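Table 4 source record.
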Amino acid sequence: MDCQLSSVYFDIAASAGWYSAIAGVLAGFALLYILFPLDHESAEGDETETGNAVVVFTCAFFSLLILAFTYAVLAGRTGDGPVVGVAAHEQLLNGAAFGLTTLLLLFGLHELLGACEHSEEFARVVERFLAS
């Protein structure tokens, strides 16, 4: 028996280009949130939480920057045969890193909103919604 899925085709290179663009946009948001706590004045007790948020967003920024480059390299892998298998494996590994980096962004948002003394209840509801 020979089972082939000739009508189902997933273009790894095209999807990797989109993932690279999304990772670049999220890296820009992470950079914005690195600069946001450093730009505003905070109370003395809030410096630890603000510092934690900056560290988390810095880690997320560099992770997203590396992911954007690796997805861009993956977008250039075209061809048949073993190249497709290597590209599928790389996309799987990059996807796991992308998911963990997204969790870093959510954790940084939690730290940032926890540091804000005047954060509204609406911001906490949005945070809970995004985390869930």
